[in-house]
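Hey team,

Filing this mostly as a record. A colleague (T.K.) asked me to run one chain through the structure pipeline before their review meeting, and I want the input and output archived in the tracker in case anyone asks later how it was produced. No errors, nothing strange. Just documentation.

Input sequence:
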Amino acid sequence: MTAVTPTALAGAAAGSTRSRPRSAGRRRQTLAWVLVAPALVLALVFFVVPMVLLVGMSFSNWPLLGRVSLAGVENYVQAFQDAAFWRSLVFSLLFTVVAVPVGMAVSYAAATMVRGEGRMVSVVRTAFFMPVVIGFTAAAYMANVLLVPGTGVINVLLKAVGLTNGDTAWFTAPGTAFWAIIVLTVWKSMGVAMILLMAGMQAVPNEVIEAAKIDGAGWWRREASVVFPLVRRQFALCLLLAVSGSILVFDQFYVLTKGGPSGSTTTTVMYTYQQSFVRYDLGYGAALSMILTVIILAIAVVQLRALRSTGVEDDR
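Output structure:
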């Protein structure tokens, strides 16, 4: 009979102990991949594959009906020489430059109003958020009804207080259409930013605010020096979402102005839509989409670098 030494028994026990954590780790890793797999498949099917197809289409002559042929960089050359495309891009950027600051200011003000507790606060919070659940198309049609010259509710009210004659055609002139759609967009979109900012404000410790009050800081001073620095991360996220959403604006202009008059309110997404699904030049539309994607990514990178330089990333 072979004797089993205590050293051998200890070694076997240690090996068994090491193998159990390793086996448990592999099981956890396998389970993690199983849980993530559906999301990866969806991302592959609905993002990666369409992007690959879009890149391929952008280098092709791709009519809706007919033969597909290789175009090389012809679509991109055409895009850079297309004055109408660049006018639509300038208009989209102008809309972004105006709509984003106004929307962020209104959202921040709304968040300060509803960050407290109470029944009336909850009612106001719900009222501010309700427009988010309405589709932009439905909201645009509603705005069109409210602003009908002569009989629209808003025109009637403006006439009653003596501000207009009640016959203003808001969506037929570029200036009035631009500002009317800015108001519609801010009203429709502010709820999401309001909720995100409100959540950040509610996380600010009351002790910090009380200490600022004891030091003699007024409301504006507390907001600027105490509250806002502590919600910078939420503000940065809202800013990123607002900029990308404004550049991609489409529904409200398409429903209310159709890009008119004379293309003066045509956004980049609307122009891309017209090339792809009105003129049926899918290859050229794909090239315009790729250019717009690169522009949005570049703006996002600039925003992230600017936010990192202000220390937002260090507030984790």
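Quick notes for T.K.: Strands lie at 60-61, 69-70. The chain has two domains: 6-58, 78-315.
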